[in-house]
Amino acid sequence: MAAVHNPPSAPILISFPDPDALVDSLASFIVKAQKDSVDKKGRFTIALSGGSLPKMLRGLINNPAVKWNKWQVYYVDERVVPLDHPDSNHRACTEHLFSKVPIPSENIHPLDPSLLNDLEDLSDSYEKELIREFAQKDSARFPVFDLILLGMGPDGHTASLFPGHELLSEEDRWVAYVDDSPKPPPKRITFTYPVINHAARVAFVAAGKEKADTLKSILDDPEAGLPSARVRPVFPGQLYWFVDDAAAEKVVYPRTPFKL
User: Fold this and answer.
1) Taking the domain 12-238, which CATH number applies?
2) What is the model's pTM?
3) A Gene Ontology molecular-function term (predicted)?
């Protein structure tokens, strides 16, 4: 009998009048994902991006519903720089979130700073971090994160998956490296699409009118193939777009009211 392949679910676009409203609802969404996961299996696995995303997580600070001791945090991608470098996604997340909340340090999984000079060893090391978390607890071919949070660049890239790059077609590795990023710094490690698309929930966060043309292309013309449009979680995973009205002003794609 031929295998049945379920098509990905349609993205859910949720637009808010301003970034503050987005921040509050995003925090509620994350807390709901956490509760569902902790109730089901006693832990919450989440992967974060850098860029403007860490600032958008401020709604989690002083939020009594967050069970920080149940979180296991990974990075969707990371710049190959020291952890305290201004370009480090880990530094950004620490400054804007982790330094302000009681999350155990051992629950945060940055890259190994001793391997910065060897991209292959560095990406292999981070893949082993994922294997330690997922391989003993889940039986899937790829890790199944409870939630992956993504940003979107003006060129439509997400994580460190850039237009026209060979990694767009990677189907086996969980973590891969980039040594020729068109956006500095050039050296990075990144989750691949199979990891991103096996998550239970994936949520893009985008705000500002400078995102309007790219967001329209991704949602209204997904076959154009921009990297962010290739994020299509496999069933029963679900894709969400949390945006403000400025980012969504040119989008024809239907919007969905926010509800938990």
Assistant:
1) 3.40.50.1360
2) 0.95
3) 6-phosphogluconolactonase activity
